[in-house]
Structures are given as C-alpha cells and as structure tokens.
Predict the structure.
Amino acid sequence: MYQGNNQVEKDLRLFRIWLKATKSIFDNVIEDIKSHGLTAENFMVLELLYNKGPQYIQTISEKLMIPSGSITYVVNKLEKKELLKKEQDQSNRRYWKVIITEKGEELFNEIFPIHVEVIVKNLSSLSENQKEELAGLLKTVGLAAKELQKEG
C-alpha cells in the first residue's frame, strides 16, 4: 500500500471526494437527459446548435471534444429524429453545416428548463457564497492543471 505524507493523503482524499461528487451530479444530469430520449452527446450537440447557431461538423467535434467519427454518428442519429439537418457547403463539398430544426428547437425549449432545474437541485445544498467560493477554487485548480499540461 502506498504511504505518503500527511499532505499527500489529504490531496488523495480530496481527489476521491471530488470524483465521487462529480460522478453523482453527472449521473443525475445524465439520467434527466436520458428521460427525454437523448444521450449526453445528443444533448450537447443540440445545446451547441441552439445557442451558437449552425456549425460545421468538424467545429462541433472540436468544441465538444467528440471524435469526428463519433460526431458524424451522433449528427446522423439526430437528423433521423428530425432534430437537426445537414447542408453541404457549396464552396467546399467536403464540409457539412449542421442546423437545428424547428422540431429540435421545440424539444430543446421544452427540456432545457427541466435540465436547469436538475442542476439547481444538485447544487442546492450550497449557499450562494459557497457556490462562488467553489467556482473560484475549481477555476484555480483547472487553470493550474492546464499549465501543467503545457509543461509536460
């Protein structure tokens, strides 16, 4: 068994708690998304198109960090459900623009308030000050981790 100093043990404990909390919240959010007949990837694509407008498939892949082969599969599934449509770029026929349909917008308008409520309920155990403090701490950790990636 690994034996670290007191600070290392605290860091490992914090990391385990952080992972468990993240997983619990994420599981609740995913369960809500599934209840609407969508996968997490489906929801992320719809949300991006709803908020940012039409996007090229490659751009969606990059923004959502979903491999290009997988994003094509997701887009095709959503197109079959008539929640979005693809249009080939006339100037470069290798590119496809993805556009949310009216049916997709209607679905998103229906489910997004419920999605927000699930997130709010999951964070309701914290006061507003605790939420601000946690956001600041997570941002600090995230930025430091990003710097470590640059060094490595």
In short: The chain has a mean pLDDT of 93. The chain has one domain: 6-151. Residues 88 and 130 are 47 Å apart (CA to CA).
